[in-house]
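Incident log, entry 3
Record: Phosphoglycerate mutase family protein (284 residues)
Problem: checksum mismatch between cached and fresh output.
Input:
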Amino acid sequence: MDGGEQGTKRNEPSSSPPPHVQHLFVMRHGERLDDADPSWVPKTDRPWDPPLTERGKQQAWEVGKRLRTEGWGITRVVVSPFLRCVQTAAQVVTALCLVDDDDSSHHAAASESSQDAVIDPSKVKVSIDYGLSELMNGKAIRNPPRGLVDSSTELHWTVPLEELHALLPTGSLDNSVQPTLSAVPAWGETTSAGHQRYSDIFQSIADKFSGENVLCISHGEGVGVSVMKLLPGVVVYGVRYCAYTQARRTIHSHSQIDGLRAGDWELLTEPGPASGLLYDTFTD
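Fresh output:
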């Protein structure tokens, strides 16, 4: 993810569609169980992959409803394979898919949780991408598996894919999407390499779905990267649960012949309590 224009400029034929603005959102998961209840850690055999708390699910639900109410028209969600992120996606997607008919405002107001939501799952399509995984080092994963080896696989780190798919709203999964990475990155990833991975993945996902507004649900480090790559010199030092960033760019054209022509990314998110992000420029 960077600020440079994508592709090479050339004259467009008169039949080309007009430019449009693409929005990219990058969101952190909701409250995780091991943070709310440290006593859970020694009781589980998967301490590195905690689920959401009930509060975390409600946080995700409320953010999803807000994104829907604000009318950003998100039609594509791509999510990290870690359980807390997929559970977050399930709540957000349900909120984004609330029925949209003459009584839609009533449904949105009456639905206090995803349990009683009436949805149209054709509105948003979801896929899981290993490229959005947590940083694979001891800084990010506080309780890695015992006997850890370098040759990690997705089954070693995450719930089986079919079980993760089952957590998503019925009809929302897009099985046709190929992930940018086929497995969780190997253990021992440096922080700088992980940051570059996030940046590359955000850009790749946005380019793949250049005709859509996209939400990536990932981890706190990923949300930080989505700011720092667009604002060189800025340091992100706080990302609350379910905080998200929003960036936009103009898509001039995207075709098999000419490729993608897109303008620079512009970050729309400001630091502060409203966004849940804390960032600033620091000098020595």
